[in-house]
Design goal:
This protein is mainly alpha-helical and about 110 residues long. It contains seven helices and no strands. It has one domain (about 25-110): Tetratricopeptide repeat domain (Serine Threonine Protein Phosphatase 5, Tetratricopeptide repeat).
């Protein structure tokens, strides 16, 4: 019985629809789709292209956030940490509501600086 439930769950997951952002054509949605698919190299390139435009707007802040999360997924905590600090400088409310303080702490912990 246990195995049949596990097999059913695996079959359901294999047929799952792609994330809702997949299929959108804007650069942010493409990068977010790559992140959700765990294609971190592609996600990093997409988010970095948005971040490097240096525009101060909500889309850029979200791109910085997901670039930092992507760097964390790739084990690059030393690159992720300053991105969280940058978010705080740009928008302290976003920093607080998106739990960036915790994530920055995780980066520092991973780098041995807790």
């Amino acid at each position: 019985m246990r195995w049949s439930v596990l097999l059913l769950l695996l079959a359901t997951a294999a047929n799952a629809k792609p994330p809702s952002t997949c299929g959108a054509t804007d650069d942010y949605s493409k990068a977010l789709c790559a992140y959700q698919r765990r294609a971190f190299t592609e996600a990093e390139a997409g988010f970095r292209a948005i971040v490097e435009k240096n525009e101060v707007d909500p889309l850029t802040i979200r791109a910085i956030y997901f670039l930092a999360r992507t760097e964390m997924k790739r084990g690059r905590f030393d690159e992720a940490a300053p991105l969280f600090v940058r978010i705080y400088a740009m928008d302290p409310a976003f920093y607080a509501s998106w739990n960036c303080d915790f994530l920055l702490g995780e980066c520092r912990k991973a780098m041995g600086r807790d």
